[in-house]
Design goal:
This protein has five helices and eight strands; from the N terminus they run E-E-E-H-E-E-H-E-H-H-E-H-E. The chain is an alpha/beta fold. A five-stranded mixed sheet has the order 3-4-5-6-7. A three-stranded antiparallel sheet has the order 1-2-8. Strand 4 and strand 5 form a beta hairpin.
Length: 179
């Protein structure tokens, strides 16, 4: 299916994450999608992508979701989000998601949010990870070039509870899927 503009895309209002355990409610979004991976695959390109894109009245949220605490999570004890390889993948997901937004003429300021649940994760480790991501994302680059143009305005690493409690992000509640 070819899209000529984002209005032709069917916008689902509630997305279920890949494990089928949690949902994110995007009814309050101006626009949202979880189809980036599918669209990249259908186009025959294999690049990294974030899980959800959510547009509110002022921003685009690029949302990456990882939950290593669910019952069937693979190698949850071996998951270490501070490993260089994991960080590199998270950074690539940001950059590769920008192509998608650009092709859809989504030009609002971007916030990159990494929702992260993993064994022994806490607010301190999430803040350390956020600080590390901030050094690898184009914050300093956009200060040196671009005449004020910004690729990113904010990066956050949050738990599900922190996401839901936030005055902005909480408009898109994440909750367990009832079975």
């Amino acid at each position: 299916m070819k899209y000529t503009n984002c209005e032709e895309m069917t916008v689902e209002k509630v997305f279920i994450e890949e494990n089928g355990v949690y949902s994110i409610d995007c009814k309050a979004a101006v626009w949202a999608t979880d189809k980036m991976h599918e669209d990249y695959h259908n186009a025959g390109i294999h690049i990294n992508d974030a899980d959800f894109l959510i547009e509110n009245s002022t921003h685009i949220l690029i949302v990456e979701y990882k939950n290593a605490c669910i019952a069937n999570a693979k190698n949850s004890k071996a998951f270490h989000p501070m490993e260089d390889k994991k960080i590199s993948t998270i950074i690539r997901k940001f950059y590769d998601s920008l192509h998608y937004l650009s092709l859809l003429d989504k030009n609002k300021p971007v916030w990159y949010i990494y929702i992260l649940e993993y064994p022994n994760g806490d607010v301190t480790t999430r803040k350390r990870l956020r600080n590390r991501l901030k050094t690898e994302l184009p914050f300093s680059l956009q200060e040196y070039i671009g005449n004020g143009k910004r690729l990113i305005e904010r990066v956050e690493v949050l738990s599900i509870d922190e996401w839901n409690a936030d005055s902005e992000y909480g408009n898109f509640l994440i909750k367990r899927v009832l079975r």
